[in-house]
Amino acid sequence: MEICKPIVTYTEKDIAIPEQLKANIVHDIPQEGIEWQRSYGRSVKTVFLEAQLVSFCDDHLQDASVFNNLFEKPLLHTFWLECYDIDTYKISVRDELISWIARLQKHGVVDWLVIVFESAESRKINKSKLLSRSSVVDKIKADFPQNVKNAAERCVSLTDPLNPKSNEAYQQLLQRIRSLLSNACSRQLSKYEDFIRMQRENRNSRDWNFFRFFIMQEQLAFAFEMFGLFDEALVQYDELDALFSQFVLNSNVGGIPVWLKNLSERCDVWHGLCLSKSVYTTLRNKIKDESANLLDLRNYLFARQCELLLLHNKPWEVASRSLPFLQNCVNELNLIEVDLTEGAVACWVFLSALEILQKCERYSDSSQMETYSRFTVGLWAYARKKLEELGILCGLMPDMSLTSDCLIKVVTLIAGMGQDPHSGDESQPSPQMRLKEALSKPESFLKQYLEISELTMGTYKHIGHLRFAKLIGKELAFLYMKLNEHQKSLPFLLDLEKTYLIEKWSTLLMDIRKYILKCYEILNDYKKQVRYNCLLAATSMTETCQSEFLEKAKKLVDEYEPSEESFVMNMDEIFPIISLSVSRKESLSTFELVLKIESKLCQPVHFERLIAFLHYEPQKPVRKSNKSESNCCSLQKASKSHSEDIPTFLTFTSSVGVGVQCPNITKCLKRSDSQGTLNLDGDLQKPDLSDYFSLSNISLNPGINEFHLTFESPSRKCGIYSLTQLYLDWNDHVSFASLALPTHVCFEVISEEPRLKVMRPMTLSEPTDLISGLLQRISLELGCGSYNFVEGTLFNIRASRGLKIKLETEVDCMMGDEVSLVLKSTLKPFDIYTIPLIVFASLCNQKDASATEYQISLNYRFPGFENSTKLIAAFHMIPSFISTMKLHTLNKRKLVEILVNGITNSRFELISADLHLVEAKDGDVEIKSLIGPKTFVVKKDQTAHLLWELISENSNATAKSILFEVKYKPLDGLNPNTELYDYTCDFKLNDYHTQYSIRATVEAQKGHEFCRVGSLCHLYVIIERLVSSISFPSIMYEVIADGSFWNISGRTAGVLNETSENVFKLSFEILPLTTGFLPLPSIRLSKYIACEKQSTNANVAEAKLVAFDTGQVYNWSRGLQINVLPSSGLIIAE
Amino acid sequence: MTTASSGFGFNYYIVLIGKSDNPIYELEYSTKGDKSVDHKYLSQFIAHAALDLVEEYLFTTNSMYLKVVDKFNEFFVNAFVGAQSSVKFLLLHDSSRVDESALKSFFTDLYELYCKFALNPLYEHHTVIKSTVFDKKAQNLAKKYLP
């Protein structure tokens, strides 16, 4: 590189500087950096200075007002002398040194340095002296003129400089040189910058020349580059770049300067940009000679910028700057109206772009790939475009023919490229080689073009610019179409179609589909042709286009060969579904689907069938537990044989569903950039579903169409039906299907068995419980369930035993066990049919108040069916009243008491109560009523007591059973009639004749009038037999006394054996233990069955006591009390 | 395609882009006397291709107005993004006279218009805007700011 280093002069006095030392100094100065204090407050930078040593001559001191070169003049002057003692110095050297300094000062040079060679010996001598100022160096310093600043620093002594031991002095020298040099440089640079600025100001003057200015300012750049300030150097080039651009822009409006005119006129070659040093050095020379053309200038400028950027370690900026550079350059060529051969610019751009890319590739590493790609992708795209331009120009594109005209063009273009700057490099094909090869023949052009396209696409994808990548794909697709390889172009087009479809760019979508259709037409894909014709017919802009495509589609469909398999198309774009709703129709188990489809076609289209498929999911019908259902109602399932053929009612839960249902999960979860198209028709298979809504022979008019489809649910198919897909059959083979429905529609079908319930009419006046013994009004509720009860169905209602029923409506009818009823009207499912009934349960011999269960069954048979179904409802009734009997005895007299207890709050009047003997011989026993013809009223807590006496003439005659009869009528409620009901109740009687009577008395001891505590008393018991014939001859007596009242001494029990006597007298001694009225000890009689006589002593234990029946023993003294006095008090007799 | 030089006036194409990169509103506006050329396909094409660049520019700046994101022949593509980058506004124009501050105001006003429209509970976000009122107001904005 033509760069002059700062010059350092040397003047020798009595010494020849060793060449080795000079070389060392030149080499060592740039080894260390020095901090450079810069003018205008710019930041301090560390610079590395270089220098050249030149022997001093007088030319070096010429006036410095005009600059040809930045470092033309020496920056530092040095004076070398060798002097070992002061005397010699004073005599020979001093004058010359002073005159040298004076000369420098005269020319305004302030940067100089004196270097004194000292021998080691003289130093020793100096050291021995006490005064240090007496050395030669000190003397020299003292001799400097008064106006010299930093005099101390301007003299350096050097001892044996080539000896590494004296390194310290040498380093000091270097440091001093660097410091002085940097100051000088700085001063020189600012001067030069001022100069450049001044030059720039003159740029509008007539004789100003950009080339000259360029070379001048470039000096600055070189200097900075030399100092290691690459960014500063770059700034210089950028300034030049901007200046030049400005000139070009201004040339558009003002007059074109001569140099610019020259620049533009010389454009007859289009060498590509070359980033190798050798090439741009020649370019610089061209610039210097003012023989460069615009492209040369630009190439050089950019090459330098690139180099500096690479030196500055910013390779990605090369990439980022290159595209603007290329575009700007092309723009400039246009602006200054450079007359280039057609295609020359494209050649240049292609070559330059590839050169930059190759350069970048060398620098890129994986970590910066992303950053790089962002910038390089533009270059690739630009290069690709230019290559395409060249291809078209030279007839190399597939659909073009290579004419001789084209060949001439190619030859011209290749000639203009000049020599390949990379001709020696075999590592990779140079840009020029590639371009030349591409232009040589169509096949290799195509290869290159595809390669670059592929690369560009890949890079775009890499940095995420998918749309750009797809657009390149589109161009490739067109290329393949031209190559007649439509199969290859399809993936690109489909990919783009998918993008447009997802992003809903209708115009673009329509356009791309036209190309797709073209491909399919050529590939003769029948199905796709139909599909795309339809799609285009639906989406085209103009109506003529629409009808054209539609006609094509129709024609294709008509031509369809039935032998081929049927196919299905997605209808979402052509016939979008607007809304769906399912409702139940009036008729049984029939649903109606109201469907709104929009037809985007411009003409009505006839379809054979419209089917909406239902997905069926079996589910056990949920039997809703009816909360109002009373407990006594039972539900029995109808036999299955019935429900099989009876149309079942279906209910549905309408579309309000919670949760998310995704009908096309596979599509949602598919990778978004996977290659498969969104709407692969191959996915659409007609589902094999047996349940569907359908409608035949429909015509879809343009705009919104509404259809009503019906579906009859097959019986016994309970479960959830959900709408899955919609099908439009064009003909037997071609159909449209919806991919996804706008709403999820489902309904549930349930089946419910009929059931029967007994309901009690609720009125305020009547009690809520059902009461037997009264006419009660009930209603029988027949819940139809899912069944339909047609008119004329015969109901047979049967009551269980003890229950009489009749229909409430049939007033005159007698109560009976069974009622038949013909249904007068048809019952719809889930209707409730109420049969009002009057029931009567006769009061039975009930001894307690518990409720009795009754059942009512309902049989029905549907007309035309063999079997009948039985429904049973059960309910409970409580009796209106109950009766109990008590037997009372008065010695031999017997009294019967009947108690009638009311259970409910209803009042009943009892009339003509009577008691009969059952199975009794007349005359033996007579019943005498003790009540007279009275009426009684019973209700809850009000009991009627009725009394009769049994009179037996003969003691043997007994009544075994008696029957209580009474007539009653309710006094409350809705039984207004005075009809009397009979109530009978029979009671059993045992042997009730009194066999023994007991009399007991307690007497005080003889001589005492009263019983006293602690004094012995007597208990006399007289047992009298009242009947002659005794079945049990022996009886046993027991005296049972309360231990707290009485103390009985001696035996308290005994057996009275069979005797002829009728009266037994017994006496016991008892002791009262407390005072007051004490109840007498009770006496109990039992029949005594002694053990068998044969087994004498051992079986005493086997003797048995059998209690007497009620009424067989009469105790006269029951409830008797005796007053016992304290031991010293009076005894008052009872 | 005719260039701006063929007559006095410029062509503008404004498009609002929804969440899934779908166009939700398109407006063609021209200050040229004749509207003979149908730009729609080209405009859509350029706008769609520019989306990649808008996405890239989004992350380089904090402001909602992204200035010129793309150039295509004589067309410039200016972009503006709504909050959270959910809605993008693109303006294609071949005008050399329009200045940045006017464009910025245009976008800001258009964004405000869109925000107000989006508050309508009956409008499902990111679907096509079919409103004559919106259309009219957008036209007025274009008239106001675009030379």
UniProtKB/TrEMBL annotation, chain A:
<dbReference type="GO" id="GO:1990071">
    <property type="term" value="C:TRAPPII protein complex"/>
</dbReference>
<feature type="domain" description="TRAPPC10/Trs130 C-terminal">
    <location>
        <begin position="1004"/>
        <end position="1125"/>
    </location>
</feature>
<dbReference type="InterPro" id="IPR022233">
    <property type="entry name" value="TRAPPC10/Trs130_C"/>
</dbReference>
<dbReference type="InterPro" id="IPR021773">
    <property type="entry name" value="TPC11"/>
</dbReference>
<feature type="domain" description="TRAPPC10 Ig-like">
    <location>
        <begin position="763"/>
        <end position="859"/>
    </location>
</feature>
<dbReference type="Pfam" id="PF23036">
    <property type="entry name" value="TRAPPC10_1st"/>
</dbReference>
<dbReference type="InterPro" id="IPR045126">
    <property type="entry name" value="TRAPPC10/Trs130"/>
</dbReference>
<dbReference type="InterPro" id="IPR056913">
    <property type="entry name" value="TRAPPC10/Trs130_N"/>
</dbReference>
<dbReference type="Pfam" id="PF11817">
    <property type="entry name" value="Foie-gras_1"/>
</dbReference>
<dbReference type="Pfam" id="PF12584">
    <property type="entry name" value="TRAPPC10"/>
</dbReference>
<keyword id="KW-0333">Golgi apparatus</keyword>
<dbReference type="GO" id="GO:0006891">
    <property type="term" value="P:intra-Golgi vesicle-mediated transport"/>
</dbReference>
<dbReference type="GO" id="GO:0034498">
    <property type="term" value="P:early endosome to Golgi transport"/>
</dbReference>
<feature type="domain" description="TRAPPC10/Trs130 N-terminal">
    <location>
        <begin position="2"/>
        <end position="319"/>
    </location>
</feature>
<dbReference type="Pfam" id="PF23604">
    <property type="entry name" value="Ig_TRAPPC10"/>
</dbReference>
<dbReference type="InterPro" id="IPR056917">
    <property type="entry name" value="Ig_TRAPPC10"/>
</dbReference>
<feature type="domain" description="Trafficking protein particle complex subunit 11">
    <location>
        <begin position="460"/>
        <end position="537"/>
    </location>
</feature>
<protein>
    <submittedName>
        <fullName>Trafficking protein particle complex subunit 10-like protein</fullName>
    </submittedName>
</protein>
<dbReference type="GO" id="GO:0005829">
    <property type="term" value="C:cytosol"/>
</dbReference>
<keyword id="KW-0813">Transport</keyword>
UniProtKB/TrEMBL annotation, chain B:
<dbReference type="GO" id="GO:0006888">
    <property type="term" value="P:endoplasmic reticulum to Golgi vesicle-mediated transport"/>
</dbReference>
<dbReference type="InterPro" id="IPR011012">
    <property type="entry name" value="Longin-like_dom_sf"/>
</dbReference>
<dbReference type="GO" id="GO:0048471">
    <property type="term" value="C:perinuclear region of cytoplasm"/>
</dbReference>
<comment type="similarity">
    <text>Belongs to the TRAPP small subunits family. Sedlin subfamily.</text>
</comment>
<keyword id="KW-0813">Transport</keyword>
<dbReference type="InterPro" id="IPR006722">
    <property type="entry name" value="Sedlin"/>
</dbReference>
<dbReference type="Pfam" id="PF04628">
    <property type="entry name" value="Sedlin_N"/>
</dbReference>
<keyword id="KW-0931">ER-Golgi transport</keyword>
<protein>
    <submittedName>
        <fullName>Trafficking protein particle complex subunit 2-like protein</fullName>
    </submittedName>
</protein>
